[in-house]
Design brief:
Immunoglobulin-like, five-stranded antiparallel β-sheet, 19 helices
Length: about 750
């Protein structure tokens, strides 16, 4: 009988049948079992000879009636004295041994900071796979056996050290372990005598700059039959040769393909007409004698977006209902053009009725309703490929009886309108890079009359707000109060940086005015949504969205580093989502508040100023000295916040937080459980006490977590997080920021 047959025996299956109860006749008494146990215990205690001297032969167990060597009724024999040891001339002494440290062959570790990772020896799974292949050839029992996934519990710190050792050993094995920095002739290498040789090395020096992407191509969705255009802008000296690749392969001869390159470094790839086979991962490579730079762009097949989330009733009166909804979770790289709202009646047989199909925001007021009646609603989203499927219907909303108050209704409507984007239909302005050679000049006069629209943010001595000028065009201004030395210094530092920096991931300065009281910077219209608030307004968000935001932040930091400076002010409030809230769009971010941006040497530079304690690198806290890798630390803290909803080094007090930062005390348990292993490894690599041990900006951009390959793209897309924790963090973060007591409207009117 096999094990499976034994498990399926009726005797074992009788208790699993429903309605079967065990009667008293099947109950077994334990009296005989207890008697047997007592006798067995007594017999074992009497028969045991491990603590007695054996004075009688074992054959006595066969002649005595009790069948024991030492029966219980007889007294125990007295042990005889041991014979004295013979005396030796030289007494033997036990040698002393020193137990030295030895390597534990097992890499399995315990502790709260360990995780199940791949085994250190990659040959073990390979050998196991070979054993199973041999077993399948010799036995039919192994035909359905799959190769198990072997993991061991290890610390991330050990894994990172092992990877660095492996990379170093691989380089040494590939290039040799000898010192080839100085050329040695063959005769000198073979000679045992010391020979002095003078060698002159001539190195060609080329003036210029390494290629850098001012504007990277963006992911697009192709429409079959329409032209597909991919554009980039490269800055380099001498001029770079730009090549386009698809899936790491060169393009074959195709009459639809056209590549145009201009003198200013712009390159455009056009496929006209586009075909479904054109979807894939494209790469553009810019190369000159000083080096090369690469950028990737994903082209997907265009499709309708997913349905919006179920609408929610915000407020209602006896005749009006205010509903709101969230943007679609998957946009397929195509923005939403408008929404359609449908209404269903509860007490009639009428199906869904269209109320409006040109809504440009995520709320709608349904009017002309009957009191004391029930209604339900659903929403559809439209992009250039068509309408999405309808959302899940809302809960049934029963209008109250006549005479209900409308105060709460209008308050809720004003709150939704305040979050609506201004200049919704404005196109993204074309950037001009002339300011890098000809900096913008400041007007020493008043900017004129400004009409306050909305407040974006406030600081200790400045505020940022949306205003309208005389012509009625809305823009964003940042006004500094020069009555305090700190405010005047901050305005000069920010103006110094903004007048010469221009990048698609940085806010662009349009104009500037200065008077005796204030200093005003004018920008194109900016949203009031920072990256944490943007994610908090969503019910869920994916790790792919966090990776898109992180990649754009790294592009901005790379440009600042390319210009020979360091940002030193990376925190959620300074990362604005410029794609806005209304109409689902692919997230686009920009960095703002550049007053701390300054030149820093590779060996470190002493700096002055105040910084957000939670996002500051340990070398700035302890020594007031900044390195190029200090921005990498702040980036790691921000990435940890977006993937966990809380700060990594936050303590009960400021002293505890400082101690946590200086001693690297943080936990990975706070991260969302869905976070990929690659993201966790990147954070572990960034959080190093010494700046030299942190990765460079280029190494972070080339990390596997930010890899654009389909494998990582899908893996990041499957990791979805609930926004409850990020919502709580957003509220606490906004409350912790230092702000002036005066409201922005009064502050601006006083200075103007």
């Amino acid at each position: 009988m096999s094990v499976r047959q034994a498990l399926s025996h009726p005797w074992l299956q009788i208790l699993k049948q429903p309605g079967i109860e065990i009667s008293e006749q099947y109950q077994i008494s334990t009296e005989r079992l207890r008697t047997y146990y007592v006798g067995l215990k007594e017999w074992y205690a009497n028969a045991a000879c491990d603590y007695m001297y054996r004075r009688r032969p074992l054959s006595g167990a066969f002649t005595h009636p009790s069948c024991m060597v030492y029966p219980p009724d007889e007294p125990e024999p007295e042990p005889e004295a041991e014979p004295a040891a013979p005396k030796l001339d030289d007494a033997w002494e036990r040698p002393e041994y020193t137990v030295e440290s030895f390597d534990n062959p097992s890499n399995y570790q315990y502790g709260p900071d360990t995780y199940l990772l791949q085994v250190r020896d990659p040959g073990f799974p390979a050998r196991l796979r070979e054993y199973l292949n041999v077993a399948k050839q010799h036995s039919a029992d192994f035909q359905d056996v799959k190769v198990p996934i072997i993991k061991e519990r290890r610390r991330f710190t050990d894994v990172m050290e092992e990877e660095s050792e492996k990379n170093r050993d691989a380089r040494l094995e590939a290039w040799g372990r000898d010192d080839f920095s100085v050329y040695k002739p063959k005769k000198v290498q073979q000679s045992t005598e010391s020979v002095e040789i003078e060698i002159t090395t001539i190195k060609e020096v080329i003036d210029g700059t390494v290629p850098f992407f001012r504007e990277k191509p963006r992911d697009v969705a192709l429409s079959e039959g329409e032209p597909l255009e991919l554009r980039c802008l490269v800055a380099s000296e001498p001029k770079s040769a730009i090549h386009w690749l698809k899936n790491d392969l060169i393009f074959m001869d195709d009459s639809r393909l056209k590549v145009t390159t201009t003198e200013d470094g712009a390159s455009m790839l056009t496929l006209d007409p586009a075909m479904p086979s054109d979807a894939g991962l494209y790469k553009v490579v810019a190369r000159n004698p000083l080096g090369q730079a690469t950028a990737t762009v994903r082209v997907v097949l265009g499709d309708i977006s997913t349905s919006p989330e179920s609408p929610v009733v915000e407020a209602m009166t006896d005749t009006d209902i205010l509903i709101s909804w969230k943007t679609p979770s998957a946009l397929n790289h195509t923005p939403v053009i408008c929404y359609k709202v449908q209404m269903g009646y509860i007490d009639t047989d009428i199906d869904w009725v269209d109320l409006a199909d040109d809504i440009r925001h995520e709320y709608y007021v349904v009017d002309s309703l009957r009191p004391s009646h029930g209604y339900k609603f659903r929403v559809l989203a439209c992009n250039k490929f068509g309408w999405s499927i309808p959302s899940i219907p809302s809960a049934i909303a029963m209008t109250p009886s006549s005479g209900a108050s409308k105060a709460e209704f209008y308050d809720a409507l004003q709150d939704l309108q305040a979050r609506e984007d201004i200049n919704l239909d404005i196109d993204e302005p074309v950037l001009s890079y002339e300011c890098e050679k000809k900096p913008l000049k400041v007007h020493n006069e008043s900017p004129g009359t400004l009409d306050f629209i909305s407040e974006l943010s406030k600081g200790r001595f400045s505020c940022t707000a949306n205003v309208s000028h005389v012509g009625g065009k809305a823009s964003t201004v940042k006004i500094f109060d020069k009555s305090t030395p700190e405010g005047e210094d901050a305005s000069k530092r920010e103006m110094k940086n903004l007048k010469t920096l221009r990048h698609e991931r940085l806010v662009s300065l349009v104009d500037a005015w200065e008077t005796d009281k204030m200093f005003m910077l004018k920008f194109d219209s900016l949203p009031g949504t920072d990256v944490v608030t943007y994610l908090a307004e969503k019910s869920t968000f994916s790790e792919q969205m966090v990776a898109d935001i992180a990649g754009q932040i790294l592009d901005a930091l790379a440009y600042i580093e390319w210009r020979g400076r360091v940002y030193l002010n990376l925190e959620p409030a300074n990362v604005l989502v410029c794609s806005g809230r209304s109409l689902g769009k692919t997230v686009q971010v920009k960095l703002t508040n550049l007053e701390t941006c300054q030149t820093v040497a590779k060996g470190g530079t002493a700096i002055k100023g105040t910084y957000n304690f939670d996002y500051t690198a340990p070398e700035i806290i302890e020594e007031a000295q900044a390195f190029p890798q200090s921005d990498i630390w702040s980036f790691g803290v921000l990435l940890y916040v977006l993937l966990s909803g809380q700060l990594p080094f936050k303590g009960e007090s400021a002293e505890e937080s400082k101690d946590n930062i200086l001693n690297m005390k943080f936990k990975f348990e706070y991260l969302y459980k869905e976070v990929t292993m690659e993201a966790t490894r990147l954070i572990m690599w960034i959080f190093k006490r010494s700046p030299w041990k942190r990765p460079t900006l280029e190494e972070v951009q080339n990390h596997r977590w930010l890899n654009a390959a389909d494998y990582m793209y899908k893996k990041r897309g499957r990791a979805n997080f609930n926004s409850n924790r990020i919502q709580k963090f957003s509220v606490e973060y906004q409350q912790s920021r230092e702000q002036m007591d005066t409201d922005s409207a009064s502050f601006i009117s006083q200075l103007l």
